[in-house]
Structures are given as C-alpha cells and as structure tokens.
Specification:
- The chain has about 100 residues and is mostly helical.
- The chain has one domain: EF-hand (Recoverin, domain 1, Orthogonal Bundle).
- It is about 70% helix and about 5% strand.
- Helix 1 packs antiparallel against helix 5, helix 3 crosses helix 4 and helix 4 crosses helix 5.
- The protein is globular, with a radius of gyration of 14 Å.
- Bound molecules: calcium ion.
- The site of calcium ion (CA) has 7 residues, from strand 1.
Length: about 100
C-alpha cells in the first residue's frame, strides 16, 4: 500500500504537465483555483474512489491554503497532494502498529 502510494506520488511528480491536467480536470468552475468541494473530488480519486472524511478534507485544505483564501492555486494544489499522501502513510503506519 505504501509502495503503491509512493509510486503514484512519484508518477505524479514526474511532470508538471500531468499536475496541470489534474488541476484543470478538477477545477470544475474554471476559476484557476481548487475550492474545498473540488479538492474533495481530487482526494476521492487519490483515495481509490472512497470519499475522504470531512476532517481530512479540512486538514488538507487548511494545511495547503498558504494564502488563506479557502482555495488552492497550482502551487498550493501540489502541496495539498503531498500532504494527502503524508496523511495516508501516517494512517497506514498507525493501523499497522495499533490494530483495534
Ligand atoms: Ca475552481
């Protein structure tokens, strides 16, 4: 799982063009920014189609929204993706060490 996420992330980082494509694809209202609702759809795709928890969307949004305007520009968007993967890897590590 971690290796797969890492691979996806590496593939993601490979070309800026690719990120631009994802950015454009999810910028539903074409205002050049990713809003929280748009971010939710991005995270759902990264999460293999499973809707992320509202708290996770909030966390990624708040952490990546450097300008504090409640939307993500392209640079902030790239940052958001890396935060998401960090979050996911932490989750996997946690569930491995402390199974409920
Ligand atoms: Ca938008």
């Amino acid at each position: 799982q971690i290796a797969l996420a890492g691979q996806t992330w590496m593939a993601f980082r490979e070309t800026e063009e690719e990120i631009s494509q994802v950015f454009t694809k999810y910028d539903a209202n074409k205002d050049g920014k990713i809003s929280k609702d748009e971010l939710k759809n991005v995270l759902m795709e990264l999460n293999e189609g499973i809707a992320p928890l509202p708290a996770e969307v909030d966390f990624v949004m708040d952490s990546a929204d450097v300008l504090g305007d409640q939307s993500l520009g392209k640079g902030e968007f790239m940052y958001a993706i890396s935060i998401w993967y960090t979050l996911e890897e932490a989750k996997v590590t946690q569930s491995e060490c402390c199974t409920i």
